[in-house]
Amino acid sequence: MRPINEIIIHCTATPAGRPVSVDEINGWHLARNWSGIGYHRVIHLDGRREAGRPIEQIGAHVEEHNTGTVGVVYVGGTASNIHVAADTRTPEQKQALLAEIIDLRDRFNIRKLSGHRDYDKGKACPSFDARAEYAYLFPDSAVTYTIGDQMLRRGDHGPAVEAWTEQLRRFREMIDHKWPIEATDVFDHTVEMVTIWFQKHRGIVADGVVGPQTRDEMMRALAGKPPYRALLE
Question: What radius of gyration do the chain's Cα atoms show?
Answer without folding.
Answer: 19
